[in-house]
Each structure stands twice: as structure tokens, then as C-alpha cells.
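haha ok so turns out i had the wrong file open the whole time. this is the CORRECT one, sorry everyone. sequence first:
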Amino acid sequence: MRQGVLFDDLPCATYRRPKGSLLKWIGNKYRMAEEITAYFPKSFGHLLDVFLGSGAILATVAPSAGVGSDSFKPLIDIWQALKADPGQLVQWYAERYRFFKSGDRAVNYETIKARYNTGPNAADFLFLVRSCYGGVVRFRKDDGYMSTPIGIHDPISPEAFSQRVREWHRRIAGCLFRCADYREVMKQAKDGDLVYCDPPYSYSQAILYGAQEFSLGDLLEEIELCKRRGAYVALSIDGAKRSGSFVCDLPLPPGLFEREVFIEAGRCMLKRFQMAGQSLHSEEVADRLLLTY
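then structure:
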């Protein structure tokens, strides 16, 4: 049963996303970023993106004062390099791209992946997320081993990546990046700030990075505390699947959210990965956007 109320009022703001995504990341909000951010308040203080991932929402808003956070250090190291030394990011990617193209692409991909798994680092992870299958960042729970195989298409060229780095560097100039648990960062949200949450999805992302330890109940408690302090909170979470025939039932506290919006997300890439690349005409999904305002 669908929870909450679906409001049809007009969105509040207008933003334009970057011309291309910087990182490939399953479940990332790049394609939906303009629609999601259209429901953001017209004015707010800091923007806190506490499950940063691909950073699509943060880069689309390009706030003058923002915080991007995640508990995964190699990811945050990428974002910190993007802000402080974008040329280093371009160099990391170009070096690995040239190696990748110098011989058997599958063998060379596995070489980079093996080096990353031996010592997790931002430079290798950057290339892996752009070249792995569909951006499915999948880690084993017991030891953190990244197990995703190579993608079917070549990653973008260093020249194309460099162009994206330049644009994204400009867009995140007003942001700080922190390697921290979402609860630590959300506690800093003040009256008038906006918190955006894009956590692992309960119905579809149990095998993905960070999902095993995530508790939706804990996040909802933090959202309640932010709301009490006067901060706005927007939450992207499980919506509808199987082309709308199944609506995900979530334990949402009554009165916490004022609005609920369903946003079409296309076909499920994770499902396609699990089904060995089959085309899934009946697997159209919609994300749920919940707003405390």
C-alpha cells in the first residue's frame, strides 16, 4: 500500500545538471537530478549530501555552501582531490586508461582491481567505477573485496573525462568533503539548512557497498531530529517496481514527511546485472522522494 500523500503542487526550484556524470555509480541520481532538485526549497542555508556517492545532486545544485560526506574513504579521497587538485584526478584516470588499453582489456581490468583490493585507494577506485559493469560497486561483506567484473563498453577517454573534471570542479567549489558517518554530519544541520539523503535501498541494494550495515530506522530517527531543529530533509528511497505493479512498503513514521513524490527511474541496472545482462522490459522502477516540508 502506498504510504503518505502524493502532492501535485509545482516544484520549488530550478537547477541544471552537469553535461555528463563524473562517476558511474548504480542508483546514482544523475538522470533524475533536475527533477529531484526541483522539489528543493527556493532558499536554504547549507546543503548537506550525506550519502554522497556519485555526487549528482550536489553538483546539480552547485551550492555556495555545501558538505558532501560518505563513510567510504577512497570515495571521499576522490572528491577531495577534485576540489584541491583536479589535475591529479585527470592524471590518475589517464594512467590507468592507457594501461587498460595496452593489452587484453579484461586482464588489465583485473590487474587494476587486484591492486585496489590489496590496498584500497582513490586512484584505482576512480577507474574501476568508470569501467566496471554498469557502475555496480559491489563489495564482499566479510573482507570488503570489490568483486564487480569488467563492463561491456570501454570507459570514456581521458580527454572526455578531463572535460567533466573541469566542469565538476567549478560546481563543487563551495563544498567541503568529509569522510564521516551520516549521523555525525546530520547532527550539524541547523535551522534553514537542507539535508539530502540517498541511502542504500532496502528492496534492491543489499549486495552493494555500504548496504549491509545500513539501518533505515536509524536514518529516520536522525531525520526526525533534523526536522525538529528546523532543517529541511529530502530522502530518496525505494518507490515502485515491476512497472508500477509493486509499491515498496516502508516503515515510515506518521507525520515525519509532508510530501511524497514518485520519480521515474527507468529500468533496473542491478536487476540486469543479476540476470546476466538480459533486457528487462517489465522492470521499470520509480524512486520515492520524501520531503519533510
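DSSP finds ten helices and eight strands in the chain.
again sry for the mixup
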